[in-house]
Amino acid sequence: MSHNPNTLSNLIKIVGLALVAAAIYQELRKPPEERAWHGKLADLIPYDFRPPKIERFRERLWNPDDPRIFTEHVFGVGWAVNFYTLLERLQMLSREPETSTPEDTD
């Protein structure tokens, strides 16, 4: 049995489109005054269809105050990567410079 590499790609696209459609449907079921255009599907998968802002890019993609590596997507359905936390955990960033103490020289 041969596997077509496009099959997985097509499946991912279909699932992605289904999630977008489900998120939009979830918002449209609400009364217009209650539509926030951001939330979670099944209390698990985040979505955000509000126009992106610079603050949200910073908050989700480079946030030293958030310990999570995966944050809500800036726009769309799914997750984004907090690169600050990722690099810090990979020890490419340091919050405090290392200093030697007198005990280290003994």
Structure description:
The protein has about 110 residues and is α+β, with helices and mostly antiparallel strands. It has one domain. Helices cover about 35% and strands about 15% of the residues. The chain has 3 helices and 5 strands, in the order H-E-E-H-E-E-E-H. It has helices at about 5-30, 55-60, 85-90; strands at about 40, 45-50, 70, 75, 80. The strands form 2 sheets. The chain has a 3-stranded antiparallel beta sheet, covered by helices on one side. A two-stranded antiparallel sheet has the order 3-5. It is flat.
Q: Secondary-structure blueprint of this entry?
A:
Elements: H1 5-28, E1 38-41, E2 45-48, H2 54-61, E3 70-72, E4 76-77, E5 79-81, H3 83-89
Antiparallel strand pairs: 1-2, 2-4, 3-5
Sum this structure up briefly:
This protein is an alpha+beta fold and 106 residues long.
Question: Which key phrases capture this entry?
Answer:
alpha+beta, 3-stranded antiparallel beta sheet, 3 helices
- The portion of residues forming beta strands comes to 15-25%
User: What is the arithmetic mean of pLDDT?
Assistant: 89
Question: How do the strands of the widest beta sheet line up side by side?
Answer: 1-2-4
| Proportion of helical residues | 25-40%
Poorly predicted sequence stretches spanning 5 or more consecutive residues: none
Shape: flat
Order of helices and strands: HEEHEEEH
- Tally of domains: 1
Rg from alpha-carbon coordinates: 20 Å
Question: Major β-sheet, in short?
Answer: 3 strands, antiparallel
Number of helices: 3
DSSP summary, beta strand count: 5
Secondary-structure class: alpha+beta
Termini separation comes to 67 Å
